[in-house]
Amino acid sequence: MRVLIFIAIVTxxxxxxxxxxxxxxxxxxxxxxxxxDYPKVLSEWGLFKTPMSDLIPKDxxxxxxxxxxxxxxxxASKARFISLxxxxxxxxxxxxxxxxxxxxxxxxxxxxxxxFQNPEAEKRIMETRLLIHEAKGWKAIVYQWNEEQTDxxxxxxxxxxxxxxxxxxxxxxxxxxxxxxQPQCKSCHDQDGKMTPIxxxxxxxxxxxxxxxxxxxxxLKAGSVTSFPKLVNYSDDNEALxxxxxxxxxxxxxxxxxxxxxxxxxxxxxxxxxxxxxxLGVNKPPIAAGxxxxxxxxxxxxxxxxxxxxxxxITSLEPGEMMPELGRSLxxxxxxxLIKEWVSSME
Length: 347
Hints:
two-stranded antiparallel sheet, 14 strands, 7 helices, globular
């Protein structure tokens, strides 16, 4: 039996050119055809001005945001936006993702500069992911951009798309970029059986006065809070090694490896706030890693990264061993070296 949910979607059309407006109420069915009534192309959401590839919002309440430490996604860059409904602020939360009002749309665009030595020049947008806060929870939708970079079409089953770019050393890189399927979106965003955003927490958003600006504009309701927690940028060599490594593990691993996540039964919890060394993996044997352990005994062997399952899994590209198991076909070389250095520094 199909269960119908009626949700209100914010109308974001504000430019002078006549465009097709999305209906104020859209009908969405849960089940096999759960996305049937959402726009089939990204342009119908009315989020960005033409040309869409410039990613310039149409509405003042659709605004960009930055985070301190980003999930590694095969070296793809990201352009993130929040679209807030009128007169409804975000509610502050000190430790978890902020409480976004119903009808909020979180927007994340994945793209590659043609040349990482000149990232502001030509780029290719691969996909746009939307998280929509419906009456009964969050819903994820994925759109694949066309070759002309004029629009993006909704995908449900995922895609492999060839892409190439020159990296920071000038070397040409080629991969089959993986656009996630609908079930894959759910698996990564699952917290206690419910879909939830992962990135926009206060500690991730606390950079360059961003949260204070939102408070001043009325977008964020923080009460008497004047000091926000902060997760360090793991790429910043000026930060402490332990803080950088813990930040990398949180953003790349802890969406699953936490008490509320899909990997909770592993007993390995990798949030930066974790204080128990054993739960962090120090001298902890795996519960059910199977071949993923690589024949090693402990998640982290202090002082010995080569004998640590954690290092083995973030280095492997083999199915059943690789961690994170989704969203990458390459190794994050800089992240691996960071975690190796961190484990080797332990007494």
